[in-house]
Amino acid sequence: MDQVFITGNDKPPSSGKNILLIIIVTILILVGFLSLSILLLPDSVIQGVKSSLVSGKITLNNKVKKTVPKIPEPRDTPSDKNIAIPKSVEETSNAKSKFRSFEIVAEKDSFSSREIIVGHGDIVSINFKSKDKSYDISIPVLHLKQTIPQGESRLLEFQAVREGTFDFLCTLCPKDSPTAGRLLVL
After folding, report:
1. Strands 88-91 and 164-169
2. DSSP for residue 64
3. 143: phi > 0 → left, psi -120 to 50 → alpha, else beta; which?
4. Are 97 and 119 in contact (CB under 8 A)?
5. What torsion do the CA atoms of 141, 112, 116, 126 make, to the nearest 10 degrees?
6. 79-121 pLDDT, tens per residue?
7. Residue 55 — very low, low, confident or very high, per pLDDT cuts 50/70/90?
8. How many helices (H) and strands (E) are present in the chain, helices listed first?
9. N or C, which end of the chain is more exposed by having fewer CB within 10 Å?
10. What residue spans define the domains of the chain?
11. Rounded to an integer, what distance in angstroms lies between the CA atom of residue 48 and that of residue 165?
12. Looking at the domain that runs over 88-185, which CATH code has it been given?
């Protein structure tokens, strides 16, 4: 007959370790599922959530309050000095779009306006002027870039065919300078 000796170090497997392992695996599965869900969301939904988080427009009952900015007209007085007011707005052959002309001045590593608001389908013309040195204006998502030598101006024209918020910046300027802004296409 075999004898089995049990010493003080021999313990049955701990069920606490198994529960901890199950919790960790469950968390990893949930994180993976959420990450995959976010990747499958349309850009418009992700952009809306990002803007809501940045603007702080989420209420406690998880409803997002959407505040749509007004597209400025030439006669408007800006409520915010960073919002570009168009120099002119003209009708186009398409009743749903307009031609909007803006002027942005770059000086002392800063843009005169840092927010341009246009309508979906609008034809946008931005006259960039450089006062004290060479600047550039880049809208990376739209693959647009224009370099403006000191004392000169350049025209950047495009049709706003995609709704959303698009960053623009000067890539020649210091990273901490206010030579950045956003284009809102409503």
Report:
1. unpaired
2. B
3. left
4. yes
5. -70
6. 888 999 999 999 999 888 999 999 999 999 999 999 999 999 9
7. very low
8. 2, 10
9. N
10. 15-55, 88-185
11. 9
12. 2.60.40.420
